[in-house]
Design a protein that fits this description.
binds zinc ion
């Protein structure tokens, strides 16, 4: 938490009327990282280990979903309110990705998670199925179960766009850590190869749970190196 910055932002937000466009960084410390005529993808960074939180917003209806209610719940809820967030999708159940779950649920926003990771959350509302279609206004997110970092890790592809949210499964430079409880290196490599590298085209944008973005095309040639080094 950064109280000084939050105080400053509150003043700025108080003057931000609902009718204004969200384009161009009108929301506090939130970056518009991708958009087309139908969709916006916003990112902001929270918490002690710099978690990326993403908001996918339908430009037709104004409805949005938030990926990983990670931390800094007051700021997260302000952004959620401004961007029209009506649901939260959890990429997995690790503590740094679920720190604001209790508060977003108290605010009436439903939280979705895979069954295998559900016990890691303080509470939740709905379970995510594999190979399912999740509606956000007129947008659709496809669910891709990718175990290995945790048993319930899941990625989300924004249909008809090059946008893929990979949580802690795939980062620039390799797979997520598979040495935590419930993790398995062979499993994460199989998930990345079968469910991400084979189905998605090279131009697909990877938005991970921490750090910078990448593309499928930039990462795919390195799979054998990752297997050989063992992490
Ligand atoms: Zn994790």
């Amino acid at each position: 938490m950064a109280p000084r910055r939050a105080d400053h932002d509150y003043v700025r937000l108080a003057n931000f009327s609902k009718g204004d466009s969200w384009q161009g960084g009108g929301v506090e410390n939130v970056d518009l990282v991708w958009s087309n005529a139908q969709a916006e993808v916003h990112r902001f960074v929270v918490g002690p280990v710099a978690n990326n939180v993403y908001v996918v917003r339908c430009r037709s209806t104004g409805e949005a979903t938030l990926i990983d209610a990670a931390n800094e719940h007051e700021r997260l809820l302000r952004v959620a309110t401004q961007l029209g967030v009506t649901s939260v999708l959890e990429t997995h159940g690790h503590w740094d990705h679920v720190g604001a779950v209790t508060e977003v649920r108290a605010a009436g926003i439903g939280v979705w998670v895979r069954s295998e990771d559900a016990h890691l959350l303080p509470s939740y509302d709905h379970l995510l199925e594999d190979d399912d279609s999740f509606s956000v206004g007129r947008l659709r997110l496809s669910t891709i179960h990718t175990p290995g970092h945790t048993p319930g890790s899941i990625c989300f592809a924004l249909n008809d766009t090059p946008v893929l949210f990979t949580g802690d499964t795939l980062f620039p430079g390799g797979p997520g850590n598979a040495t935590f409880e419930g993790g398995d290196f062979t499993t994460i490599i199989r998930s990345i190869d079968d469910r991400l590298f084979r189905p998605f085209v090279a131009d697909t944008l990877i938005f991970p749970g921490h750090g910078d973005s990448s593309t499928i095309g930039a990462e795919r040639p390195h799979l054998d190196e990752w297997v050989a080094r063992g992490w």
